[in-house]
Amino acid sequence: MSTLLNISGMTHFFGGLRAVSDFDMALEPGDLTGLIGPNGAGKTTVFNLITGVYHPTRGAISFKGKPLVGLKPHDIAGLGIARTFQNIRLYGDLPVWQNVALGRQFRVKYSIPAAILRLPAYHREEAEIREKAMRLLTLFKLDNRANEIAKNLPYGEQRRLEICRALSSDPQLLLLDEPAAGMNPHEVEELIQLIQWVHREFKLTILLIEHQMQVVMGICPHIVAMDFGEIIARGSPAEIQGNKRVIEAYLGKDEEEEEKEPA
Fold first, then answer.
1. Total domain count for the chain?
2. How many degrees, rounded to 5, is the angle at CA 175 between CA 9 and CA 229?
3. Is residue 145 part of a domain?
4. DSSP assignment of 72-118, as one string?
5. Which has the minimum average pLDDT: 81-85, 87-91, 158-162, 242-246?
6. Model's pTM, two decimal places?
7. How far apart are CA 94 and CA 117, in angstroms?
């Protein structure tokens, strides 16, 4: 089995601040991996570096053996990487189905003149895009909302719509950035089932950032923990839960232990 995503020595500075330091990760096809850490640990920066929003100060990133550093976000998406965002980024004033359809626009094959002149090639491909959008919405049980304005959907359904839109680009790697943010307990349980279903049915590799440990520990066989831009632990949910450095990152060091450390 060949490595799908390989990151080696990835380091990134914002001015004089080191946001990510010597980050290494390899994802195989079909992996479902959690990336955790306290606020400011550098998790979303890792996603931004993978997807071309930022270019690393040093280090290498490759996807299916192709280097990603220096590529633009839409080129990286075209290779088969899709993502969602910590803060929902839908086209709020557009209908639900158009949000999903727009997730596929960078793959269209008709020419600009065909679009301007509304030639048969344009109408044919746009019809195919809408049909695919409706199939996805049906799978996500959102087809009854297809013509509603996206911003009018309940919060949990907006999150589902964002994942649905990401899948419309036919990715092989899906990056989920805190999909449970702002959800109530019932919505979180539904999200857990949704991610497991997406992973299984679409045969995707998934890298998941999440603060809610219920989500990460419940669905990710492998977890990577970060703090201050560095990886501090890797392992199974049980190994991460018992890791001293991870506990300290979230809860702080015990005062008695701090006193024992040399000045």
1. 1
2. 35
3. no
4. -HHHHHHHTEEE--SS----TTSBHHHHHHHTTGGG--S-HHHHHTT
5. 87-91
6. 0.89
7. 24
